[in-house]
Amino acid sequence: MSRIARMWQQLLWQLAPEACASCAAWLARDQLLCPDCLSVGTVETLERSIGGIPAWACSPYDGPIAVALRRFKFEDRPELARRLATTLHGHLPWNELDGRVHFVPVPLHPLKLAARGYNQAALLGAYLARHARARCSPTGLRRIVETAQQSSLGRRERRANLVDAFVASPRLRGQHVVLVDDIVTTGTTAIACTRALTAAGAQVMAIVSVAHTGSDEPNTVETGTREETAQQSRSAD
Q: pTM (2 decimals)?
């Protein structure tokens, strides 16, 4: 950022200070959370494995970060993407990544995108790519099946719900990819996206999200068609 741009930003902070993304208290600087919310929340580098791929986040999905993410996702607050991405960027192990990666967001189905007006994962991916001086491929994945909301389903139903739901662009063949989402819960969505990216010839280096729940995740990438997996889920019941 140039000196003039930095001075202009400082002036904007003085004239119209930003609010804490959780409690809405005024912030004097470009921060995500106020000191009070930071004191009760956890912001640190978290790592888990999803299908053998490292998955990093900067917070568990609870406390002030969970409030901020709900505002971002469900309360028409796309402007929070910049501060959320900045916070996440500061807690990623960049020694294990480089500028050659493509940040690819988990996509929304076109109908849900039209209803919400923005894809929260795509906004995060764009800002992360800017921080990393890398590339963002917002259309690298497409959601071709309108699925039921994952949070309303059990584990087996989640797997069946997402089989064949995503397709990756052939432009990603041979590329190193970082998958981006706002929240990772069981890892089922990430696994489905990873499967599509791998099928297109991409190499998924990592999965990053602002928060994750720490739930046990699938350890393998599911195979088979949507119909086959659905039949397996029903028989398992």
A: 0.80
